Amino acid sequence: MKFKMITLFLLSISSVFAASLSIEGAYVRATPPGVPNSAAFMTLINNISEDISVMKASSSFAQTVELHAHDMSDGVMRMYQIRVIDVAANDTTVLKPGGYHIMFFGLKKPLKEGDTVDLELTLYNGETVKIMAPVKKVMSGMKHSKN
Amino acid sequence: MNSKVIKTFIYAFILLGVVFVGIKVTKPLLEKHKDEIRYKFKLETTKGEIKLEDFQGRALAIYFGYMYCPDVCPTSLSRLSEAYSELSKDEQKQIQGLFISVDPARDSLEHLEGYAKYFHESFIGATSPDENYLHDLTERYGGYFRKVALEGSKMGYSVNHTSDIFLLDKNGNFKGRISHMAKREDMIQALREATK
Lengths: 147, 196
Known about the structure:
Chain A is of the alpha+beta class.
């Protein structure tokens, strides 16, 4: 019991002193055969009272990682690279299918469900946030994002 | 007014009538013919050429996209596969899923086959080496695609494209299109309707 309380206390402290940006529900798409690219989706949570911009992303699994966005009009989907992904003060930005995503190019190996991929985000102030994201198939990933 | 003028009027009137009836009769036939050829296609797969006529007696669910597409195409094909899997075995036999790549420069036939099968083992992946043909084909279906250079991006270019699924009935007639984000039940219903 005592141990549990100490653990809880330590956890609460660690969340207080956590990075300005935390990440939830991150996952990377499993790759169909012959596709050397993938995309990562997640929720970015800004824990501080000033705006945060994600400037860069990298992973040991891919040659290049870029920030991308989508928009849809008249049934036509457009995808393009963006310079930053902003997260407003004390707010969240959701990276989800059909919207923002982090794109992986030149994967060093195909990504299978059950794999874990490292991802590092660099913020406007030079701070970095490192996470390990599970690889999921398209539909299980989408179900997750709905929850 | 003399009788000659009246006669001329009558002849002209009859002639107009004949032309009018002629148009009335032939127009629907012409329209039908136009419709029949409008959705025709001739594409390549690892197993050789496929044509619309090859699917006579089976409905088609067609999606135009490209393999580098990081998000929308996999989502669309997964959702199509999910809806298709809800159909009975008998219904599945009556409708074919077809992925047509509009990026033949990057998508090889071998890769396309594996890609389509990844979403459902029965799906076919096809394309044409002629990009102009693919433009003509998507436009005939009421779709669209355009290569867009992504400057500074490793991707080189992305392809903006229609993300609806196009449905043809068993006779190769256009049955409708459904958004890739349509509700699951609506997609299942649309596939069923196409087989009728």
